[in-house]
């Protein structure tokens, strides 16, 4: 991550982004001490900066950990068991296909006593119900809402600062124009007085007034510049705090949708299991296993995608938290 040293305080938004993105080639995130003081002077800004690492990030991390546990339980307790059942089913189906047909007379002597062709498959499927565990109701949507609210407050404050900065710049231009006009007017007046033979005292007074106004100009300009600089510093801090957070919100929302979809797809798998468990017919097992074979690959792909997104989001969250902590620390 790049640095925001005293000589680079007026960094553009693009340079701020590269400074905090953690991309390859960057070094570390550094915040100028003067910028840190801006937060200390603004209680509401300090509260937002502290709220993010102390309240919002822990909530999101808890939600991600819950999703991790749900994924692991689904993978080990549901997917692996169904995969094992599918392997057994293929073996039993192959045995059934090659099993020689018994004589009808023999069948009459032993009606319905033959072993279920898919008995081992059904036994394996019954383990899924025991091992199955629904992911806890993660409150990720609420956590994302907290993050969106914090970003909304920062965005609103940034708009206020931009409006005040435009107003300050207009005032500086108006003041500069007024002062220049006044000085020129007084100097012209002194020339006119001298040309008309006015009393030397009047001429000296006009000249002194022009000199006094020119002397006051840097003092007033300095005051205006300090106020403008304070607004720009606060705006810069807000830009640092907002940098990359909306991307994080989007990724968290994507994770939430994937987690909901995974829960729904696992429920569909469980619905498929009910058929062989409720019916003793071999045909019911065959229909159920065919459906499971179609759906399980989709669920596995969804688990892989969700796992990847959760890991990426957790890494970005760590970088973001580190950035916030460096912004608010003295």
TrEMBL record:
Keywords: Coiled coil, Membrane, Transmembrane, Transmembrane helix. The chain crosses the membrane at residues 174-195. It is found in: Membrane. One of its GO terms (cellular component) is membrane. Residues 1-27 have a biased composition (Low complexity). Signal peptide: none annotated. Residues 1-34, 92-111 are annotated as: Disordered. Residues 282-323 form a coiled coil. It comes from the Eukaryota. It holds the Pfam family DUF677. InterPro entries: DUF677. Residues 95-111 have a biased composition (Basic residues). Belongs to the UPF0496 family. PANTHER family: UPF0496 PROTEIN 1 (PTHR31113:SF3), UPF0496 PROTEIN 3-RELATED (PTHR31113). This is UPF0496 protein 1-like. It comes from Canna indica.
């Amino acid at each position: 991550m790049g640095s925001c040293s005293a000589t680079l305080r007026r960094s553009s938004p693009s340079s701020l982004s590269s400074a905090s993105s953690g991309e390859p080639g960057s070094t570390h995130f550094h915040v100028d001490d003067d910028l840190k003081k801006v937060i200390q002077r603004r209680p509401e800004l300090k509260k937002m900066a502290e709220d993010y690492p102390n309240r919002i990030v822990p909530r999101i991390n808890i939600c991600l950990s819950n999703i991790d546990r749900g994924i692991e339980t689904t993978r080990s307790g549901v997917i692996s068991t169904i995969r094992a059942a599918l392997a057994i089913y293929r073996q039993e189906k192959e045995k059934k296909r090659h099993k020689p047909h018994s004589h009808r007379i023999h069948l009459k002597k032993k009606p319905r006593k033959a072993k279920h062709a898919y008995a081992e498959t059904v036994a394996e499927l019954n383990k899924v119900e025991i091992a199955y565990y629904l992911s806890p109701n993660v409150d990720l949507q609420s956590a994302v809402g907290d993050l969106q609210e914090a970003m909304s407050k920062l965005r609103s404050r940034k708009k206020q600062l931009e409006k005040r900065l435009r107003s300050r710049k207009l005032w500086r231009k108006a003041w500069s124009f007024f002062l220049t006009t006044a000085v020129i007017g007084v100097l012209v007046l002194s020339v006119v007085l001298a040309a008309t033979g006015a009393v030397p005292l009047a001429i000296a007074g006009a000249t002194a007034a022009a000199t006094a106004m020119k002397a006051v100009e840097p003092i007033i300009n300095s005051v205006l510049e300090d106020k403008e600089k304070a607004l720009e510093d606060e705006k810069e801090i807000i830009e640092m705090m907002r940098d990359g957070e909306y991307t994080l919100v989007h990724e968290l929302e994507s994770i939430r949708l994937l987690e909901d979809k995974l829960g729904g797809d696992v429920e569909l798998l469980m619905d498929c299991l009910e058929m062989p468990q409720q019916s003793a017919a071999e045909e019911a097992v065959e229909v159920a296993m065919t459906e499971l074979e179609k759906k399980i690959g989709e669920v596995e792909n969804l688990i892989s995608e969700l796992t990847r997104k959760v890991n990426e989001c957790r890494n970005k969250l760590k970088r973001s938290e580190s950035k916030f902590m460096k912004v608010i620390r003295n």
